[in-house]
Amino acid sequence: MHSQQSLTFLMTTILAVGLGACALQRPAPAPLPPQPSPPAMQAPTTPSLKPPPPKPRVPPEAHPEDITLIGLSRPEVTTALGDPQEQKDSNPGQTWIYRSGSCTVEILFLLDVTRNDDFVVDQRMDGTDGTPHGEQVCLRRIASHHGK
To answer: Which helix (H) or strand (E) holds 24?
Structure first.
């Protein structure tokens, strides 16, 4: 009997501890009610200013006084540079040659059948430093001799 009492006591103790552990478990907390969001901050109002109009884009190498020959007709080249010192027939087209000091400019004209006229399609310069600025100095020198 002693063992039966021990067994009953042991079982009662385990049952009591188990129930006690259940009593220690806390139920999950209820979800918190949604918090109201803080009021949206409004940006300070400033008078509406129109942005300034964009400045016209000028290519960095182009200046209003630059001389551009590509695409010009014969009369337009004559107006800009005067009559050439030399003309020679090229196959195809015609080449006009201008000289001023050590600067030489050769301009190739080809027929544009859509416009039914000859237009500059290429130019070659000698006697410059090879920079766009050097080429413009050469063209201005030739143009200034035409004006005299």
So the answer is: helix 2-24
> How do the domains of the chain map onto residue ranges?
74-147
Beta strands in the chain (DSSP E): 86-89, 94-100, 103-112, 117-126
**Per-residue tokens: 83:** 């009559």
Given a cut of 60, whether residue 11 has pLDDT beyond it is no
Q: pTM for this one?
A: 0.55
pLDDT, tens digit, 9 for 90 and up, residues 110-141: 999 998 999 999 999 999 998 999 999 999 99
CATH class for the region spanning 74-147: alpha beta
Q: How far apart are the first and last CA of the chain?
A: 143
Please name the amino acid found at residue 110. Answer: L
Best CA proximity match to 146, nearest among 63, 68, 86, 78: 78
Let me know: does 119 contact 109? Beta carbons within 8 Å: yes
Beta carbons of 86 and 124 less than 8 angstroms apart: no
Instruction: Tell me the C-alpha distance between 127 and 104, whole Å.
Output: 6
Cβ count near 50 (within 10 Å): 5
Q: What type of residue sits at position 23?
A: A
Rounded to whole angstroms, the Cα distance separating 19 from 70 reads 101
